Amino acid sequence: AKRQGQGQRVIFTQQLVQDMRHHARLLRDLKQDLDSEGLFLEYQPQIDLRTGKLLGVEALVRWQQRNGQRVPPDQFIGLAEQSGLIIRLGDWVLRQALKDLQSLLQRVPGIRMAVNVSAVQFNQQDFEQKVEHCLLQQGLQGSYLDLEITESVGILGSDAVETKFHKLKDLGITLSIDDFGTGFSSLSYLERLSADRLKIDRSFVAKLDASASGQRIAQMIIGLGQRLNLQVLAEGIETESQLEQLKVMGCHEGQGYLIARPMCLNELEGWIDAWRQ
Ligand code: C2E
Ligand code: CA
Ligand code: CA
Ligand code: CA
């Protein structure tokens, strides 16, 4: 048994070294591709569930390596955060998203752009100045921009974060708490932060079809939103049944494969024209 244990340890260590090499290589390639065509954005529509009206889109970063292979964001965002590269990446995402928003606004007046912001980015001292600068550069009002911040980062609730939220809100920007219900934070911060929207994590939407407990959590978040006067957006809607249940529960906004997959700007523009007819 002891020998077997040692064998497992060797395999474990080999795996660890392999992973580290793989990560180092990914990070090096990402750094190189940051200034190239390898990185681009896709946009997923967010709609009013009652009227079907297009409210906004969420920008999702995509990375296609030089060998043609796509690396999903879940595999490189974390690495980028650990290495600090997320700052440059995040700056790029924001700039590109606002450029594209500029052109989307010609087609859909009032459409908003939701951009994911990681804790590392958000915690930069000059984050709000950066955002303001990007908006000015595109000649855009802050009210067209929505920043999605995850609850799980553990930064929500401090005074510094609260101050930052208010500064961003002074620019007219709205703030959404992403993946709501999966983190560990207390509810009291929600009131202090004056966020605008809760995004029900897609794990709860997925459970709508399966179990009563899934329903209860979605219902609870929607009720919380109503009491605190926050918008509630359900993400990851994949079936008609999920959509129906969310509507009945009083959830007003949604996104998911059932409505549309994330698309590049060109595809999105085509989708918008078809959706409107
Ligand atoms: P997220 O912010 O929770 O984004 C939602 C994810 O769910 C996206 O995955 C989206 O493609 C996927 N999705 C949307 N509708 C459905 C559906 O109906 N069913 C299923 N199964 N999935 C759906 P994606 O694009 O792979 O992004 C994964 C995560 O990577 C994001 O989760 C976000 O945390 C992060 N991410 C993506 N782009 C950025 C970015 O520009 N900056 C930062 N900081 N993080 C990003
Ligand atoms: Ca998001
Ligand atoms: Ca989410
Ligand atoms: Ca997520």
TrEMBL record:
Domain EAL span(s) in chain numbering: 23-276
Coiled coil regions, renumbered to chain: none
Signal peptide start-end: none
Source taxon at top rank: Bacteria
Protein name: Diguanylate cyclase (GGDEF) domain-containing protein
Covered range of the whole protein: 318 to 594 of 594
